[in-house]
């Protein structure tokens, strides 16, 4: 299966379980891999046939910038659901990194893979 990806998408958000984290915005980094059949846009050369990574990025930036969660797990789940539901993606892999959250670690966070519900 082909993929469309977004790597290193940096967004500041209100995120964290500690009191001090409720008063600041922290940088988060998203790496997103979306299953998509790229043969169709490759044949037509039409942006309308693509899974448009710019449109997905814009939506993720808008949602994450306005979000307010304690856990990175919650935010990752919500972003994955938006990608599946609003962009018709069948499978998404998402890595959410919180750089600098743990002293000595470059980043911590979660990686999830979700599939669209079938009726
Ligand atoms: N699995 C998780 N562990 C932790 C989280 C989290 O969201 N998921 N969050 C924190 C704190 O907010 C931390 O990032 C502050 O340094 C701790 N562990």
UniProtKB/TrEMBL annotation:
One Pfam entry name: FolB
Key word Lyase present: yes
Pathway(s) of this molecule: Cofactor biosynthesis; tetrahydrofolate biosynthesis; 2-amino-4-hydroxy-6-hydroxymethyl-7,8-dihydropteridine diphosphate from 7,8-dihydroneopterin triphosphate: step 3/4
Keywords: Folate biosynthesis, Lyase
Segments passing through the bilayer: none
Domain (Dihydroneopterin aldolase/epimerase): residue spans on this chain: 4-114
UniProt xrefs under InterPro entries: Dihydroneopterin_aldolase, FolB_dom, GTP-CH-I_C/QueF
Reactions this protein catalyses: 7,8-dihydroneopterin = 6-hydroxymethyl-7,8-dihydropterin + glycolaldehyde
A GO molecular function held by the record: dihydroneopterin aldolase activity
Lyase recorded as keyword: yes
UniProt cross-references to SMART domains, sorted A to Z: FolB
EC number: 4.1.2.25
Protein family (similarity comment): Belongs to the DHNA family.
Task performed by this protein: Catalyzes the conversion of 7,8-dihydroneopterin to 6-hydroxymethyl-7,8-dihydropterin.
The protein, known as: 7,8-dihydroneopterin aldolase
Name of encoding gene: folB
């Amino acid at each position: 299966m082909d993929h469309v990806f977004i790597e290193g998408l940096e967004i500041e958000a209100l995120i964290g379980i500690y009191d001090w984290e409720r008063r600041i915005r922290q940088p988060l980094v998203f790496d997103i891999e979306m299953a998509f059949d790229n043969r169709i846009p490759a044949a037509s050369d039409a942006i309308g046939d693509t899974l448009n990574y710019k449109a997905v990025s814009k939506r993720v930036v808008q949602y994450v910038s306005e979000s307010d969660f304690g856990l990175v797990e919650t935010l990752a789940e919500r972003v994955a659901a938006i990608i599946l539901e609003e962009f018709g993606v069948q499978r998404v892999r998402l890595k959410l990194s919180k750089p600098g959250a743990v002293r000595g670690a470059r980043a911590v966070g979660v990686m999830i893979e979700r599939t669209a519900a079938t009726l």
